[in-house]
Amino acid sequence: MDFSVVAVAREDDSPVEEPLRVAVLADRLGYREVWAGEGPTWDSFVLAAAIGRATERVALTAGPVPVSVRDPYSLARGAASVAAVTGRAVGVALGTSSKRVVEGVHGRPRVRPAAVMEETAAAVRELLHAEPGEPVVPGSPFRRRLAPPGGPLTVAAFGDRAIATAAAHADRMLLDIVSPEQVRDLRARLDAAAEKVGRTPPTLAAWLPAAVDPEPASLAQILVSIAGYLTVPGYSDVFTAAGFGEAVRLAAAGADRDTLVRALPPEAAATAGLVGDLGAVRARIDAYAEAGLDEIALVPATAADPAGERTLTALRPA
After folding, report:
1. Which residues form the domain of 276?
2. Which InterPro entries does the record match to this protein (predicted)?
3. Of 60, 166, 209, 230, which residue is the least packed, with the fewest Cβ within 10 Å?
């Protein structure tokens, strides 16, 4: 099992500079890669560049970036620009995001998201490998001046069309907050899709909330993340089967985040992540590996563990 670290995954109430502290710690502890997620606060490419300047070794991945708000060239240029100023390999992760983010934050229409993802992934894959001297895009009089960024193309996927896009174009497919049972199903679907197009399956990674020996504040931080998935098809069934049906029903009725967090017991934090004492977390890692996961991208809870130091230190690479 490979391990990487997510400097920032989604919006919460943590300090805005916390991602840099997480990244610096991950680099010091020997993790190989840091993800710079994108949201209403952070631009992923700017954050990736800042992380690269503040660290010594880690490879960088920017995103997932919503494909509805940036064109393929901007995505590839962003990765190449970060690589040029940091001297690191830089990858790009693509996602469809949500209507709340694409339309509510960016003011862009979120239409045909699966088709836009497929078109963007195909174009970005080609652009990430363009060499200096080639047209910046096919047919352009402008020439590429920056070297290829050298990192992987990752596609965040869950539905069948996104999985097919990952199988056809990506080096890695990304899942978010999944149980081992979901991993097993998605691994099979990815392998079948890759076989259909005659490609070696991409590696399979998952962003998983992580907290070793968590304090109550860390559990609450993870429950905030889980609350956003209670109405998502494929997730609601998992949480209902785990005994949290009341929270799922409240979410379907439109309950706000605070109500949902109160409805989720602390043990819900372990449903789709790495939460508990070190022994329990190690056993959970084994379950994910057995299910077919290749990489765990740790999303450390930081609310009562600044920079996720306790968790990242306990799980650092051997």
Report:
1. 2-213+271-314
2. F420-G6PD/mer (IPR050564), F420_Rv3093c (IPR022526), Luciferase-like_dom (IPR011251), Luciferase-like_sf (IPR036661)
3. 230
